[in-house]
Amino acid sequence: MKPEMLMQMQPLSGIADPARIRCVIFINGQMLHVALPELLKAQQAALSALEARVAALESEPLP
Length: 63
Fold this sequence. Notes:
Helix content is about 50%, strand content about 20%. The relative contact order is 0.10. A hairpin with a 2-residue loop joins strand 1 (about 20-25) and strand 2. The radius of gyration is 19 Å and the shape is elongated. With about 60 residues, it is α+β, with helices and mostly antiparallel strands.
Protein backbone atom coordinates (compact mmCIF):
# COMPACT_ATOMS: atom_id res chain seq x y z
CA MET A 1 0.00 0.00 0.00
CA LYS A 2 1.33 3.42 -0.92
CA PRO A 3 1.99 5.87 1.94
CA GLU A 4 -0.44 8.34 0.36
CA MET A 5 -3.21 5.77 0.68
CA LEU A 6 -2.48 5.24 4.37
CA MET A 7 -2.92 8.94 5.00
CA GLN A 8 -6.37 8.82 3.37
CA MET A 9 -7.64 5.94 5.51
CA GLN A 10 -10.30 6.85 8.03
CA PRO A 11 -10.01 5.62 11.64
CA LEU A 12 -12.60 3.27 13.07
CA SER A 13 -14.65 4.44 16.02
CA GLY A 14 -17.73 3.27 17.83
CA ILE A 15 -17.25 -0.43 17.07
CA ALA A 16 -19.83 -2.32 19.11
CA ASP A 17 -18.38 -5.76 18.33
CA PRO A 18 -14.56 -5.88 18.01
CA ALA A 19 -14.79 -9.47 16.74
CA ARG A 20 -16.11 -8.03 13.48
CA ILE A 21 -12.82 -6.21 12.85
CA ARG A 22 -10.65 -8.22 10.47
CA CYS A 23 -6.91 -7.67 10.13
CA VAL A 24 -5.08 -8.43 6.90
CA ILE A 25 -1.65 -10.02 7.29
CA PHE A 26 0.91 -10.71 4.58
CA ILE A 27 3.03 -13.77 5.36
CA ASN A 28 5.10 -15.98 3.08
CA GLY A 29 3.75 -14.19 0.03
CA GLN A 30 0.13 -14.84 0.99
CA MET A 31 -2.56 -12.48 2.18
CA LEU A 32 -4.48 -13.81 5.18
CA HIS A 33 -7.12 -12.27 7.42
CA VAL A 34 -7.97 -12.86 11.05
CA ALA A 35 -10.39 -11.42 13.60
CA LEU A 36 -8.75 -8.80 15.80
CA PRO A 37 -9.49 -10.62 19.11
CA GLU A 38 -7.83 -13.78 17.77
CA LEU A 39 -4.77 -11.80 16.73
CA LEU A 40 -4.47 -10.27 20.19
CA LYS A 41 -4.94 -13.49 22.23
CA ALA A 42 -1.23 -14.35 22.36
CA GLN A 43 -0.28 -10.79 23.34
CA GLN A 44 -2.96 -10.74 26.06
CA ALA A 45 -1.70 -14.06 27.45
CA ALA A 46 1.89 -12.77 27.50
CA LEU A 47 0.79 -9.55 29.20
CA SER A 48 -1.16 -11.50 31.83
CA ALA A 49 1.88 -13.68 32.55
CA LEU A 50 4.08 -10.60 32.86
CA GLU A 51 1.61 -8.94 35.24
CA ALA A 52 1.62 -12.08 37.40
CA ARG A 53 5.43 -12.10 37.51
CA VAL A 54 5.56 -8.43 38.49
CA ALA A 55 2.95 -8.98 41.22
CA ALA A 56 5.00 -11.91 42.57
CA LEU A 57 8.17 -9.82 42.62
CA GLU A 58 6.38 -6.95 44.35
CA SER A 59 5.06 -9.25 47.07
CA GLU A 60 8.47 -10.77 47.90
CA PRO A 61 10.09 -9.32 51.00
CA LEU A 62 13.30 -7.39 50.55
CA PRO A 63 16.49 -9.14 51.77
